[in-house]
Write a structure and sequence with these properties.
It is a single chain. The protein has 426 residues and is α+β, with helices and mostly antiparallel strands. It has two domains: 31-301, 2-Layer Sandwich (BirA Bifunctional Protein, domain 2), CATH 3.30.930; 309-418, Anticodon-binding domain (Rossmann fold, 3-Layer(aba) Sandwich), CATH 3.40.50.800. It is built from eleven helices and 23 strands. It has helices at residues 21-28, 44-64, 77-83, 110-120, 166-186, 263-267, 291-301, 329-348, 363-373, 383-387, 406-418, and strands spanning 32-36, 39-42, 67-68, 74-76, 94-96, 102-105, 129-138, 153-163, 192-196, 206-212, 218-223, 229-231, 246-261, 271-273, 279-281, 283-289, 303-304, 307-308, 319-323, 353-356, 377-381, 390-395, 402-405. The strands form six sheets. Strands 3, 7, 8, 9, 10, 11, 12, 13 and 16 form a nine-stranded mixed beta sheet that branches. The chain has a five-stranded mixed beta sheet with strand order 20-19-21-22-23, with helices on both faces. Strand 17 (303-304) and strand 18 (307-308) form a beta hairpin. Helix 2 packs antiparallel against helix 5 (166-186), helix 2 (44-64) packs across helix 7 (291-301) and helix 8 (329-348) runs parallel beside helix 11. The longest helix is centred in the first third of the chain and has 21 residues, at 44-64. The radius of gyration is 25 Å and the shape is elongated. It binds one RNA strand of 77 nucleotides through helix 9.
Length: 426
RNA sequence: CGGGCCGUAGCGCAGCUUGGUAGCGCGCCUCGUUCGGGACGAGGAGGCCGCGGGUUCAAAUCCCGCCGGCCCGACCA
């Protein structure tokens, strides 16, 4: 992709009202554009990142044995009458349709998935089953804030599992927990599991996935003796300020998983006859990750004073090629030629390249933009590098560049892509 | 939903106190000079001063109402 053709440019100045690092850097870098409070358009660069995060989530969900579906975002009120949640979900956007029919915009989907499973699963042979979707969710937050971290419309992967027995549920729950940790690890986030209140559904604990960072709005409590990690809901009130007992760490919640027990299966009468002829209520769990929030979190954790530092796995492009033009037309032609064949070679091999081919833009400006956009590997082709038959190689997290012979670049890029991530957290 | 700050060119801001022909920086267009860490000169385009009402000879400026954005708090199955 030629940067000169890319829709969405960088800007030197941060938006005046951006509060968080993710809001300002993603806006300045040309990844997202705010439409209204808590609502964003993803520009080509930002959409690539979001798509990669979703792909990682999909892979891990599929590995878990879950199947992807897509449910509507427009939910009829009647479904919520069944569970008595129409008034209880206070963040639900509610609207009126033709003939005075009432609808809510999806903030979660138990009310749709439970009847769906009931429609297709009629025998114990149809269980267990796990279904997920990746969809925009809507929550009428009283206060949207912090860029992608708390929006009113945001991307969410919601998974629901259905089991005949508690044991089977628990086994799946633990596997889901591991899958979640794998998602975060692959996205460059060190998430830890915190126990949380089960809310209104269960006596059991639910679990949150928390990424410790000073930018976090949440707090987790780590018991200094047992190492147990908790969110503040389940820490005794008297212990909330007790720094002797708990290490208190700021963090961002990037996902949560809930045992739902039979709350929804009972409401929708989802049950089946077991092998022994007994009717059993289906045991459910739900599991959520917000890819857009993950994207914001990655920026919070991986940036420096110059811009974003994307992990290879989610970077919008893997390689940022910069060409620096020369006053000598012949040399210029050579630079163009070398760059073109390098891009072709890399792209043919499946490497994603953003080529800053802009004319009349100074080297400093191109470098500043590359740092801001944060693609993990920068290659420079210039008169200087060509004199050595080389390109200049600099990883985003490094200070200094080194020269790599043109003919070796593609191979070294492959080795680099295979190598484990070396990220410095902010 | 309570409290506060803010809406002026694409972006960042000044002007408002004390009403009188709308400015600066960045960005953008043209020409020339530059050409490895956000270059320089010259010329130029671009405004319903958030919206509506009021006061006044005259409103970006004063008054009232509304809309929007952000911050603190509450909230966050």
């Amino acid at each position: 992709m030629r940067y000169s053709q890319l829709f969405g440019k960088t800007t030197k100045d941060a938006p005046h009202d951006a509060d968080s690092a993710n809001a300002s850097l993603l806006t300045q870098g040309g990844f997202i554009n705010q439409v209204t409070a808590g609502v964003y358009t993803y520009l080509p660069l930002g959409l690539r990142v979001l798509t990669k995060i979703k792909a990682i989530v999909r892979e891990e969900m599929n590995k878990l044995g879950a199947q992807e579906v897509l449910m509507p975002a427009l939910h009829p009120k009647q479904l919520y009458d069944v569970t008595d949640r129409w008034e209880k979900i206070d963040v639900m956007f509610k609207l009126e349709g033709a003939g005075g029919r009432e609808y809510g915009l999806s903030s979660t989907a138990e009310e749709v998935i439970t009847p769906l499973v009931k429609a297709y699963a009629h025998s114990y042979r149809d269980f267990p089953v796990a279904l997920y979707q990746i969809q925009d969710k809507f929550r009428n937050e009283p206060r949207a804030k912090s860029g992608l971290l708390r929006g009113r419309e945001f991307s969410m992967k919601d998974l629901y599992s259905f089991h005949l027995t508690e044991e089977d549920f628990l086994e799946f729950y633990e596997k889901a927990k591991a899958a979640y940790l794998a998602v975060y690890r692959r996205c460059g986030l060190d998430a830890i599991v915190a126990a949380a209140s089960g809310g209104v559904f269960t006596e059991k604990h639910s679990h949150e996935f928390q990424v410790p960072t000073p930018a976090g709005e949440d707090k987790i409590y780590i018991d200094r003796k047992t190492g147990e990690v908790m969110n503040k809901e389940i820490v005794p009130e008297t212990d909330l300020e007790n720094e002797k007992k708990y290490e208190i760490v700021k963090s961002i919640e990037v996902g949560n998983i809930f045992p739902l027990e039979c709350r929804f299966s009972k409401a929708f009468d989802l049950k089946t006859q077991g092998q022994d002829g007994e009717m059993v209520d289906i045991i459910m769990g739900c599991y959520g990750i917000g890819p857009s929030r993950v994207m914001g979190s990655i920026v919070e954790v991986h940036h420096d004073e110059k811009g974003i530092i994307w992990p290879k796995s989610v970077a919008p492009y893997q390689v940022h090629l910069v060409t620096l033009s020369s006053k000598d037309a012949t040399v210029n032609g050579q630079i163009e030629e070398a760059a073109t064949s390098l891009v072709d070679e890399l792209e043919d091999a499946g490497v994603e390249v953003l080529w800053d081919d802009r004319d009349g833009v100074s080297a400093g400006e191109k470098f500043a933009d590359a740092d801001l956009i944060g693609i993990p590997l920068r290659l420079v082709v210039s008169a200087k590098s060509l004199a050595e038959g080389s390109v200049e190689w600099k990883e985003r997290h490094e200070q200094d560049a080194r020269l790599v012979k043109l003919e070796d670049v593609a191979e070294q890029v492959h080795e680099w892509l295979e190598a484990p991530e070396r990220l410095t957290s902010h």
